[in-house]
Amino acid sequence: MKTLPPDLQELLARCLDSGAAADWQELHSKLADERVHPDLLEAYAETCALHHDLRCILNGGANDDAFLRGVESALDGDRKNSGRFVLDVTSRAHEGLLKQAKTQRRPNLLRIAAVAAAAIVLLVAGAYMLRGPAQSAVIGRLVHATPDLKLTRGSTVRAAAAGESLLADDLLQNGTSGDVAEVELDERATLKLATGARAGFPANKAYSVELTQGLLSASVGPHAKDHPFVVHTPNADAEVLGTRFSLDVTAAGTRLNVYESRVRLRRDADPTGIVVEAGFAAEARPGTQLVAVPIPVDLAATFQNGRDGYSGTREANITTQNAEFTNGNGKTQFEGDDQLLCNFKEYECRFLIRFEGLSLPANAKVESAQLEIDLENWSATNSLQGAYLNVPWNLKAREMDGLGWLHRDDGVDWSAPGAGDANKDRIPGAAPKIPTLGEANEVRIRIPLDASIVQRWIETPASNSGVIFWLAHRGDQLRFHTTDAPEQNRRPSLVIHYSVPAGTPVPDAHRNQF
Amino acid sequence: MSAELLVRAQGGDRAAIAAIVTEHQRVVRSYLARLSPDPATADDLAQDVFLEAFQVLQRIDPNRDLRSYLLGIARNRARMAWRKQYSRREVTGDALFEALETHAIALPSTEQLDQRLDDLRACLARLAPKALQVFRLHYRDELRCDEVAERLNMTAGSIRSILTRGRDALRQCIETRAGEAAAP
Fold first, then answer.
1. DSSP secondary structure string for all residues of A316-334
2. Torsion angle, CA of A508/A509/A510/A514, rounded to 10 degrees?
3. In chain B, whose CA is at the least distance from the CA of A476?
4. Cα-atom radius of gyration of chain A, to the nearest Å?
5. What is the DSSP letter of A426?
6. Which of A4, A31, A36, A186 is the best mutation test for B, with the most CBs of B within 10 A?
7. Contact A78, A38 (CB under 8 A)
8. Neighbouring residues of A266: CB distance < 8 A, sequence distance ≥ 6
9. N or C: which end of chain A has fewer CB within 10 A?
């Protein structure tokens, strides 16, 4: 049996008892000082596991239940701390009083008491709201921000950042980058805002979103019948009890697509509206009746190594590392590792990636394309830039004069070192818009690509030299998760949305819901 | 079973989500208990593992092994926890994480974990009454050593010593039982 030396045993016992950070740091430091002897580490890990098991057993399962409750509670969010909960209660109390006032069956005393109670509730809510913008209720968070997503809060308009909280009365306006913004609301709803979409979250209407422009896709968890999740648009309201759907608001009207369950679409002129079932769409236009019709097919192909048999992703890092030993060609990192590391402080580094063997059904027209890359980022100031490569590069050229900082193939040079010629090595005048990396250490960025360039990659595979990335300023380390990442969802992927003429056969896997 | 649960969970079935947590929590928590900077962090990380998985639920392929998927997230969470605890300019966190993963993690199956917990229960019954009382006060009632000491009119050092010796005895007992079970 492996045991820790007495001094480490004593220290570990103190750590497990007190949980003090300083004690743990001392213990970890001593373990490291022992040059991480395997037996010591095994004894340490087993003691920690035993400590954990003892808590589970001696708590008689309460610990397991508490864990499950913790996960469920975190999934639901803590609505009771939300200001919207107060407003919701107020609204219900107010509605009740209005009903009572209409029926006029209550004795005066009760009505006075009820009005007084409502006034108190309203006063409390009013006082809550008057505490100013800093006290506004958090209603959710921004999961993914596009490069030109704007957040309007009060009189301030600014760029929105992934991870930040959304408050009641916030307004989001997506730009024209082609990327999709994603929002998670505490009310069990996930919303995606397409290019140009504008959505507000009114404080005075619980469980609701105001979509005034553009395409919104939503996945909504179960809601009670008397409190449906409602998306208000200028032409109609969509009442949702738990489903997946999208709404597109244009100057002509509002279009609803339902992918799961059902949604009621109603408007002032037609308060009953119609119920739109899964697989159907309906349009609300002035002067036309609401009618449900089958949804036209939206298609998307995802290219990611290991998915549906695809294996065409190619990547490399070209660098100036050890350039003095390689006639200036630097050290190139090829595949074989689950991450490609760029230490931008010490040397220049550029990340190359292309997706070979892209194929879509005949006559497919690329509508949009998106590259997704997992990064490990250690500096909030890191800013990534990119370009489309205009010349081929050979991953099989691995000798000293092969693919590297100076050469793109055996004996063939880049026009400028590091594929640096903006007019020859790169496609001039075109650059992917890359979202800010933000403060998160591990982040999957979604980079919208130029649809016409991706169309050319498919029609003329020889033109497909992929994309190159680099940091705008010398900063910290950046790691790219590669096609060799053990977890498939960390590998780079290229998602192509496309359309085909009616009747064209398409793979089932390409049928997509925005 | 996991694939079916996953499909139901992807359809918004809350009971399926709870069943996934119940089915996999023990393995995930046990893995993290060995790999985290400290046991108190392990359960927080385990909770994050399930939350992260549920946030991307629709993207998980039901044909993949969900347990491996969850452990992949757990591994990354543990690595980030080590890095967060120690400045990235120090190598201690990364080095210890990698060394622990290399040398100290023999991930048991769910059945082996159940067996280990059964063994632990049996071994606990063999502890001296006084030691068992200390274990209950410390682990079940979550009293610190000084609080247990005050309750039993002893010193905190003695309580720590009882816990350390007791854990050693339990580990030895578990290993013996495991060895006996494996013997032909």
1. EEEE-TTGGGTTT---EE-
2. 110
3. B88
4. 29
5. B
6. A36
7. no
8. A236, A237, A239, A272, A273, A274
9. N
pTM: 0.40
ipTM: 0.83
- Choose among B51, B88, B93: nearest CA to B73: B51
On chain A, the residues whose CB falls within 8 A of the CB of B43 are: 52, 67
Report chain A residues whose CB lies below 8 A from the CB of B117. Answer: 53, 56-57
Size of interface A-B (CB pairs under 8 A): 165
**Ranges A21-35, A88-102, A118-132, A352-366, most confident:** A352-366
How far, in Å, CA of A115 to CA of A158, rounded?
42
Interchain CB distance below 8 Å, B100 and A41: yes
What lies within 8 Å, CB to CB, of B41 at 6+ separation is: B32, B81
Instruction: For residue A19, give the chain B residue with the closest CA.
Output: B40
pLDDT over 70 (residue A467)? yes
- Over residues A364-412, the pLDDT tens digits come to 888 888 999 988 877 767 788 999 999 999 998 888 788 999 999 998 9
What sign does the dihedral B153-B158-B164-B165 (CA atoms) show?
negative
Say what the pLDDT of residue A458 is: 94
Which residues in A lie closer than 8 A to residue B104 (C-beta atoms)? 38, 41-42, 44-46
- Select from B14, B21, B133 the residue whose CB has the most chain A CBs within 10 Å, as the one to mutate to test that interface: B21
DSSP-derived letter for residue B71 is H
Tokens of A157: 């308009």
Interface test with B, best of A54, A78, A245 (most B CBs within 10 A): A54
